[in-house]
């Protein structure tokens, strides 16, 4: 009913290559964009921007970064937070080394540095796989955190290792207000998503999936394994690096190396497990879930259940709920929320004529 | 039908009116404290004690005096688990106040959360209280109008420790040629004071041995072996959590006397010393507020709040411990700021901006301390537009195996020496952020 795709034919190759082939999908996307850019900045309040929308967008982007590497190219990684940290600190440092560097360019530069680091730590992936690769990315996680804490140079001589965001000026415009920070984040996140959505449909994306499904077979049919894997690490780390810069600059405004610890890597991993590996939409769903669930539980404990449970107990409960959900998803729906959404869509197509 | 509609309309109007009336009735006279507390997670011991003491004091003011000049104090908690993002979320959720009662100030008791909400609270005009911790250069109120590292900032802390060691050695001049080791937690917090220690070592001519302990600090064998080789006269412990008892135990194992180890402000609680058992006996630490229940204000809280079954502590035995008393001290300072601000702006619920004025004019002399029943618990302190720390003094206490015993009067930090360093740093910050510092000579 909602999805009546009959009668929509592609008559040109260009049309056939579109990411969204149904006009309903395109219309929905435009409506969403209109909502995000045109409506939300005016109706949202500080709380929605600073506590929900910005972290949601940044974590979606981080999820996307890991998803390209793990979901599409099949390389497990626990170093996401390390690459985020590299991006954040590189953007920050470059702002000082090159005064007058435009903010957006420093995001990109941070991403490029993160990509370089990602390639270095991706090298072992040529020889080792699965759990063993996981351990080598874990090394990245600990090494980067140690490095940034140990040498004050990275935080510009600040002995305590804390960096704070520069003024958020883009082309003379101050994006320092909550709505401004939201718009800035959105404008950085969106192009990267468009890029990634097209990337995974390109030949590189297909190479990634071939390597993921069986790299020996991929090598046999002539896919350059070295290049494919390292590009996966580079692009994934680039996106994670940009996400890290956004996390430090537009979300928190200040960050210390410890803010990118192992639990942040796990958080990003949970986003793609819950949201859906090998899915672009899944990153949004996973991030929304991971941002909203704690808040909902916390508000519940403050209002509905206050007095029933001791303060703080629901926070412990939250960890249990997350753990249970992860296990349930891994068993019942390894493809995550994105797959549930797809299933719902398929049913909606037939509704109400199920038979 | 028409009649029916009328009744319906009437009911709706009545309901709306009632809702509005009840909302305004509640807002009539309440001042709100948003509490970004942490009761679960690795630092729960600190959080439950501190927020327990803070809430009990607010409750005490409500029960004993009916609030501040009739304005009831109200509060609600939001669990942060000491996690920065949760702290930010809580800040944004609570900053608007509760049922119309405006927020007075935020007290996150977390360096990370304080850093992350520093610019937000300045933009929202809500004082950010970082008692005994926080960003050192926020002492300069001309650049940080809304941030208050009350009582003691990290620089004052080490300066006071060195002054105490000087006293013990028979004068600061005698420090020359002495050897002092500092064992610090490998985190921003742990490293914050290293430049100041180096400066002091140059000034007084003592030799400094800096040793880092990686987080979380449950393995310190090599560091203490180095200490045994180097034989320093004193060891300053800048620890955190599990690192403290482990340090004391390892010191005993390697034969370093506990009574030459001086713990800093986060190595000074019962929870830091007691787990080390006998190894902690003789351990010295600094404190801005002694533990104990003998102070009139604590007796008052016990009588009015705890005995009435309205106390916040789950474990009543923690009444009067270091963290609890810090919460009480924090409560006294917050309430005093509200009281002062009310004297200027009127006896009604105040905005954060107005309460900020109160904080900036905090003034506790012995007379006022006696009035609030906190003589000896809280140090004499006076804040101003330029000085958001106020005190800068600590007392030293020694662990006797069961509890802390205060062993020194107030020892002052060399604040004149530190001030230029603080101003350098705050002006650098102002330049980075494009802030024009206030002219403090024009502030009333």
Automatic annotation (TrEMBL), chain B:
This is Amino acid/amide ABC transporter substrate-binding protein (HAAT family). Keywords: Signal. Belongs to the leucine-binding protein family. Residues 39-401 form the Leucine-binding protein domain. CDD domains: PBP1_ABC_ligand_binding-like (cd06334). It comes from Aquitalea magnusonii. The keyword Coiled coil does not apply. Pfam families: Peripla_BP_6. The keyword Signal applies.
